Amino acid sequence: MSDNVSAFNSLEYNAKIRKTIPYYDEFYKQVISVVKAKTENPLCWLDVGCGTGRMADEVFHNVAVKRFVFCDNSPKMIELVKKQHTEPCSEFMNISVLDIKEKDCFDIVTAIQVLHYLSYEERIAAIKNCLNALCKDGIFIYFENFRPKSEVLLPLYFQRWKAYQLSQGKPQEEVDRHLQRYGKDYFPITIDEHIKILTDCGFRYSEILWLSNMQVGIMGIK
């Protein structure tokens, strides 16, 4: 049984997610690339749905940070990252993205494989919270699954995703079980909807920064 909203228990999460999401580690490299291109100054960073701290692993090795906030609604995940990250600048928030009240204090906000667990209305509220937490010119970067614009393409996307998972050694039953969660346990939206929400929430600029299979990386600038 999972101890968080994802399909995987906190202790097995990293190994399982790599067998499930193509190019998973690339998400974090793309985030670091964007941030380093923007500035070399020490940053205040909020990682929403921090999970096992994978984002922080990349950040602390590549970027100067003066404040890094781990945020996750799973007590188990927060317990895990507290043990792994004892850097003086580390802070921990065991709350949902829907309950974030920070205002105008972060240069970067990230959310990796988080927002698609929310309903459409909750997603909007969450993104507004992320926007509010950013300083002016701050960047919000997130990666998640997306829904194809035409449902006719869904079987094709699913077949590719299934083939990837099988190639990673996952049993057929486990692959089928994961795909059946689509639209039931997590709720992808189209790329057009992603951009519209960012614009409607008040981001001055929004762009697709990475795309592959059924996953997309998007950034918005406050």
Task: Briefly summarize what is shown.
By secondary structure, the protein is of the alpha/beta class. It is built from eight helices and seven strands; from the N terminus they run ααβαβαββαβαααββ. A seven-stranded mixed β-sheet has the order 3-2-1-4-5-7-6, with helices on both faces.
What does this protein look like?
The chain has a single domain, classed as Rossmann fold (3-Layer(aba) Sandwich), CATH 3.40.50. Helix content is 40%, strand content 23%. The longest helix is centred in the N-terminal third of the chain and has 15 residues, at 24-38. It is α/β, with parallel strands linked by helices. The protein has a seven-stranded mixed sheet with strand order 3-2-1-4-5-7-6, sandwiched between helices. α2 packs parallel to α3 and α6 runs antiparallel to α7 (172-179). The mean pLDDT is 94. The chain contains eight helices and seven strands; from the N terminus they run ααβαβαββαβαααββ. It has helices at 13-20, 24-38, 54-62, 75-84, 120-133, 154-167, 172-179, 191-201, and strands at 43-48, 65-71, 90-93, 106-112, 134-145, 205-212, 215-221.
